[in-house]
Specification:
The chain has 317 residues and is α/β, with parallel strands linked by helices. Helices cover 34% and strands 14% of the residues. The structure holds phosphoric acid mono(formamide)ester. Phosphoric acid mono(formamide)ester (CP) binds next to helix 2.
Length: 317
């Protein structure tokens, strides 16, 4: 298995099965810090830089919380408009990253341009963690999600996963790539204008990912062990910021998971994950059903980032 020391976390495309389990084992070992709300000193000599060119609630704060939990230092920006990359100068990723690498030991980057973290990694002498790039990938979120499934269901192999939402979403790309490493079977449900591209499907076929496209949640929910959701009422992830304006419309029934549908059709032990934020595809009254695991998933977001930071900074093997 390749070492994680100094490694960039940019994509799940080429992550190997044993590497997933290694990350999960480290996450399990570090989980008590988050569960017991205590801080340690594993990363006390290290500094995290957060470079967020797009809004975030969970990813940035969970990554920063993880660094604090392990005794490390944090600095960064959450609004690129307050940097030279977001004003008159439009400073390049290359020049920006050449600065950031002098200020810290690992860079966590979110960007509206697909491939921006890869570009950063080309120039940075410190590890770069992709925290979401345009419609590209969101590896730390999906590692959190796979860890949550593994923890909650005891396995990944053998699970049937219903993926519902906008298939242009970076989480959907990362989870479908990751599925190549496990005996996972997918049902993919999305509006036609948000479906998997032919190019991406060819890539998945080349990786022997097992999935089929289905027209509605109702048509396959009875078979699903895991229901993995994203909105279809969605922002444009290629923009640095999208304001809420006017009527945003509602989610068609085919892409919603409701309390009534769960009671009528879902497997009793199926679990729902949603990386959040949500719109009306997942009504709040589902929160109190036995299927809801998205708050556990959110908690695990801190646990997973502790594991990743510790691994790439060489504090654990
Ligand atoms: N799940 C997720 O990426 O949330 P944020 O956009 O709030 O970081």
């Amino acid at each position: 298995m390749r070492s994680f020391l100094g490694r960039d976390i940019l994509s799940l495309k080429d992550m190997e099965r044993e590497e997933f389990f290694q990350i999960f084992r480290v996450a399990d070992a570090l989980k008590p810090y988050a569960a017991e709300r205590r801080n340690g000193d594993l990363l006390k000599h290290k500094t995290l830089l957060t470079a967020f060119y797009q809004p975030s609630t969970r990813t940035r704060l969970a990554t920063e919380a993880a660094m604090h939990r392990l005794g490390g230092h944090v600095l960064g920006f959450s609004d690129a408009k307050m940097t030279r990359a977001g004003d008159f100068y439009q400073e390049s990723i290359k020049d920006t990253v050449h600065m950031l690498e002098y200020y810290g030991d690992v860079i966590a980057m979110r960007h509206f341009q697909q491939g921006a973290p890869d570009e950063a990694a080309r120039w940075a002498s410190v590890p770069v963690i992709n925290c979401g790039d345009g419609w590209g990938e969101h590896p730390t979120q999906v590692l959190t999600d796979l860890y949550t499934i593994w923890q909650q269901r005891g396995t990944l192999d053998g699970m049937k996963v219903l993926l519902v939402g906008d298939m242009r979403m970076r989480t959907m790309h990362s989870i479908l790539y990751a599925m190549s490493q496990f005996d996972l079977e997918g049902f993919v449900v999305s509006p036609p204008d948000m479906s998997l591209t032919e190019e991406f499907k060819a890539d998945l076929d080349g990786r022997s990912v097992q999935y089929r496209e289905v027209e509605s949640v109702e048509a396959c929910i009875a078979e699903a062990d895991v229901i993995y959701m994203e909105p279809v009422v969605q922002a444009d992830y290629t923009q640095s910021r999208v304001e809420a304006s006017g009527e945003r419309g509602g989610t068609p029934a085919a892409y919603r998971v409701t309390r009534e549908l769960l009671a009528a059709r879902a497997k009793p032990d199926s679990i729902i994950l949603h990386s959040l934020p949500r719109m009306d595809e997942l009504p709040p009254d589902v929160d109190s059903t036995r299927h809801a695991r998205y708050w556990v998933e959110a908690f695990n977001g801190v646990v997973m980032r502790m594991a990743l930071l510790s691994l790439v900074l060489g504090a654990v093997e």
